[in-house]
TrEMBL record:
Cofactor(s), names only, from the UniProt record: Mg(2+); Mn(2+)
Keywords: ATP-binding, Ligase, Nucleotide-binding, Purine biosynthesis
Entry-linked InterPro entries: ATP-grasp, ATP_grasp_subdomain_1, PreATP-grasp_dom_sf, PRibGlycinamid_synth_ATP-grasp, PRibGlycinamide_synth, PRibGlycinamide_synth_C-dom, PRibGlycinamide_synth_C_sf, PRibGlycinamide_synth_CS
Cross-referenced NCBIfam families: purD
Protein name: Phosphoribosylamine--glycine ligase
GO molecular function, one term: phosphoribosylamine-glycine ligase activity
PROSITE patterns: ATP_GRASP, GARS
Length: 429
């Protein structure tokens, strides 16, 4: 199958890596195309230049390469309606319409849909001025949770005990054009990411994973796009996935269909397992990064079949998904200064050495080529080192052996990805 993947991150590299593996194993013969891609992706797919936010240009590229499936990875093109343009050109596309992607693009819209569908989530107030923000903060009390209503690349949420800081973030969000702020109740308990593949009607859950959003060990420091992930979650209650499908994903998909804006692609359900039960923290309209790197490493069913079935509205016909029993740990290597200011242009070494370790592969995100054609850093999150192992301890050990082989001046990573889970210290209140 000819497949075009839109995006530049380690998530898109993970998707291409899975599709390439199907071809390498002889299970399929794909012709892979990617845009804008990155140097890691370029080794596995034909690399094209396109503005990922320009639906007309993406649809034209899809027709030019004869794509039989287009996969739109990141949220910004989805919210901009790029999947609509591709679909209008008659090419099957994995990813929601711009209308359906509002589940991620507007937190207040997501709250409205959750309320209509009876989905359990944090209580929230949508505020349009500073007085309302202050009143909402005092109504809920600390810890304060303040969210920009719109897309903010993981930087729109502040969780703090400091009322002044909470107010200041609210005011900063309000200062954008049509700025709106969501102030909500604090949710205690461990977080889980569950990706639900949807075709507008049917929901097929993948395996749950956990993400590490803060930059430092022990969840210290500012939020990032995600510093690591692992699966499976041995500590999660039995029946969690079924509960989330029946109480969250299916009612949401049914409500979106009822509104005439059916959701297809990945509904990423971000959950907190709180003392008062399972609650939705957020919806995203795409695969999560870095959880995807670990989840896809365990998927044995060909990913192309899953995505094509979703794009064609045929998920109900899909055989049950098959998974490797191994554990998978992903550690993100970030450049100096991330997430405040990311240093770029430093040479990267050791990827081949890391990949020579059993069960380890390395995915690119913020990488580029220098004028001398040398691999250099070109962004905040530079690489994802992904390892499979017999259990979490084994996968962790391998992932960190891989990280140790990588050379990048000033780079940093968390050393505690999956550590508390390995030690059996994650508990649901
Ligand atoms: P979001 O962009 O909505 O995913 O939020 C980013 C992160 O902020 C989440 O992964 C949580 O760690 C934290 N967060 C968001 N909402 C809440 C909440 N209501 N209670 C506690 N933490 C939250
Ligand atoms: N892993 C968090 C995200 O993709 O938004």
């Amino acid at each position: 199958m000819k497949i075009l993947v839109i995006g530049t991150g380690a998530r898109e590299h993970a998707i291409i890596h899975s599709l390439h593996r199907e071809t390498a194993s002889g299970a399929a013969a794909h012709e892979l195309h990617a845009a804008p891609g990155n140097p890691g992706i370029a080794g596995l797919a034909t690399w094209h230049t396109v503005d990922p936010l320009d639906g007309t240009a993406v649809a034209a590229l899809a027709e030019e390469v004869g794509a039989e499936l287009v996969v739109v990875g990141p949220e910004a093109p989805l919210v901009a309606g790029v999947a609509d343009s591709v679909r209008a050109a008659g090419v099957p596309v994995f990813g929601p319409s711009g209308e359906a992607a509002r589940l991620e693009g507007s937190k207040s819209f997501a709250k409205e849909v959750m309320a209509a569908a009876g989905v359990p989530t944090a209580m929230a107030h949508v505020c349009t001025d500073a007085t309302e923000v202050a009143a909402a903060l005092d109504a809920f009390g600390p810890p304060y949770v303040v969210k920009d209503d719109g897309l903010a690349a993981g930087k729109g949420v502040v969780v703090t005990d400091d009322r002044e800081a909470a107010l200041a973030h609210g005011e900063a969000c309000l200062s954008h054009e049509n700025g709106r702020v969501v102030v909500e109740e604090y949710l205690d308990g461990p977080e889980v990411s569950l990706f639900c593949v949807c075709d507008g009607v049917t929901v097929v859950p993948l395996v749950p994973a956990q993400d590490f959003k803060r930059v430092g060990n022990d969840d210290e420091g500012p939020n990032t796009g995600g510093m690591g992930a692992y699966t499976p979650l041995g500590w999660a209650p039995a029946g969690l996935v079924d509960e989330v499908v029946s109480r969250v994903a299916q009612p949401t998909i049914d409500e979106m269909a009822r509104r005439g804006t059916p959701f297809s692609g990945v509904l990423y359900v971000g959950l907190a397992l709180t003392s008062r039960g399972t609650r939705v923290v957020e919806f995203n309209a795409r695969f999560g990064d870095p959880e995807t790197q670990s989840v896809l490493a365990r998927l044995m069913t060909p990913l192309s079949e899953v995505m094509l079935a979703a794009a064609r509205g045929r998920l109900a016909e899909l055989e049950p998904l098959r998974w490797r029993p191994e554990a998978s740990v992903t550690v993100v290597v970030a450049s100096e200064g991330y997430p405040e200011l990311a240093r770029s242009g430093d040479p990267i070494t050791g990827i081949e050495d890391a990949e020579s370790l059993p069960g380890v592969h390395v995915l690119h995100a913020g990488t580029g080529l220098s004028t001398a054609d040398e691999l250099v850093s070109a962004g905040g999150r530079v690489l994802s080192v992904v390892a499979l192992g017999t259990d979490l301890a084994d996968a962790r050990r391998r992932a960190y052996e891989g990280v140790a082989k990588i050379g990048l001046k000033g780079s940093h990573h968390r050393t505690d990805i999956a550590l508390r889970a390995e030690r059996g210290e994650v508990t649901v209140p």
